[in-house]
Amino acid sequence: MKPILVIGCGNSLRSDDGAGRHAARQIAATVPQDDVAVLVRHQLTPDLAEPVRKARLVIFIDASCEDPPGKIQSRRLAPEAAMPGPLMHHLTPAGLLAFTKSIYGNCPPAVLYSVGARCFEFGEVLSDEVNHCLPELLTRIRRRIIRQTARSNNPGQIVGSSVT
């Protein structure tokens, strides 16, 4: 597995809910494949624990129904305190980290990039607000990948640690 794992998730048939998938595909097309593995998923499932465990950093990308349309948020993630139930079909990013930690004893650092969505109706077209903010979202994720790659290639050197 590559040092950086990017997971874009969401439903591409529910308008803005597909923003994470859309962004992940663009990341896959524009970053060095030597350092980054990109997965595009409808939802987060327990089988992702294996690739998550092998990464040095996991970047999740998803739409948010809690933030204003077009607003980009990034935050570090920690494993959820409570383990997901035994009959889980899908997980939150923090739930996937907890599941990974429970199976393998540890999990890598992770960050979630989310974009506020306007529309979750049936359709494959992103809203104007989400379309407008995608270039900035992609720039922030690429910068994070570059910082992580520099950190991995120069372990003794201190490289900026901000999340954005």
Features:
Rossmann fold, 5 strands, 34% helix, 164 residues, five-stranded mixed sheet, single chain
Describe the secondary-structure layout:
Layout: E1 4-9, H1 19-30, E2 36-41, H2 49-54, E3 57-64, E4 72-77, H3 93-104, E5 110-116, H4 128-153
Please, could you describe this protein's structure?
This protein is α/β, with parallel strands linked by helices and 164 residues long. It has helices at 19-30, 49-54, 93-104, 128-153, and strands spanning 4-9, 36-41, 57-64, 72-77, 110-116. Helix 1 (19-30) crosses helix 4 (128-153). It is globular. The two termini are 24 Å apart. Mean pLDDT is 88; it is low at 157-161.
- Side by side, the strands of the main sheet go 2-1-3-5-4
Order of helices and strands: EHEHEEHEH
CATH superfamily, called what? HybD-like
Mean pLDDT: 88
Give the uncertain stretches in residue-range form. Answer: 157-161
Q: What is this entry, summarized?
A:
This protein is α/β, with parallel strands linked by helices and 164 residues long. Helix content is 34%, strand content 20%. It has a single domain (4-153), classed as Rossmann fold.
